[in-house]
Design brief:
The chain is an alpha+beta fold. It has helices at residues 19-28, 51-54, 67-70, 90-108, 114-125, 139-152; strands spanning 2-3, 8-10, 16-18, 46-49, 60-63, 73-75. The strands form two sheets. A three-stranded antiparallel beta sheet has the order 1-2-3. Strands 4-5-6 form a three-stranded antiparallel beta sheet. Strand 1 (2-3) and strand 2 (8-10) form a beta hairpin. Helix 4 packs across helix 5 and helix 4 (90-108) packs parallel to helix 6. The N and C termini lie far apart (54 Å).
């Protein structure tokens, strides 16, 4: 298989296929066990090329099929279709960014190790190790994290 400069791929049979379509076809079968739902409308999320969100390819995103209305999505881990967290609307995405900047500054400054910072996060917020990921947080959890850690540090 080779990619041409026009974003088309020639497969073994010599047929041309749009590279974006090929990526999406491959993606359909790579994450069959992932089930995410939109927190706004409840619809089951679909895997999309990130160009649908950002205009350029940064991998894949899980998005609400009603993206134009709900504006909820979450990115995927690099070279994967595994979601980084849960679908979020714009206010929640901004809050997650703010919470991450604050939380990461604590362990990146050396005040705590990364591991100890996450242990403290679990303890202060009453979360399991599995749930102590800012990419899974709701807006209120992000605000709680900021309140707790701004007062501590």
């Amino acid at each position: 298989m080779r990619v041409s400069s026009t974003n088309f791929i020639t497969d073994e049979s010599g047929a041309f296929r749009n590279a974006l379509n090929l990526q999406e076809e491959r993606a359909e079968g790579l994450a069959p066990d992932v089930t995410l739902h939109c927190p706004v409308c409840g619809a089951r999320a679909v895997l999309k090329d990130s160009r649908a969100i950002y205009g350029v390819f940064h991998g894949f995103v899980w998005a609400c099929p009603n993206l134009a209305i709900c504006d909820t999505y979450v990115g995927c881990h690099r070279n994967s279709h595994s979601p980084l967290g849960t679908l979020a609307d714009a206010p929640t995405r901004r809050a997650r960014g703010r919470a991450h900047r604050l939380f990461d500054s604590i362990w990146k400054s050396g005040r705590l190790s990364r591991k100890d910072a996450y242990r403290l996060l679990q303890q202060k917020m009453g979360l399991s190790e599995r749930d102590a990921h800012i990419a899974k947080f709701t807006l209120s959890q992000c605000n709680k994290l900021c309140d707790i850690f701004m007062g501590e540090f």
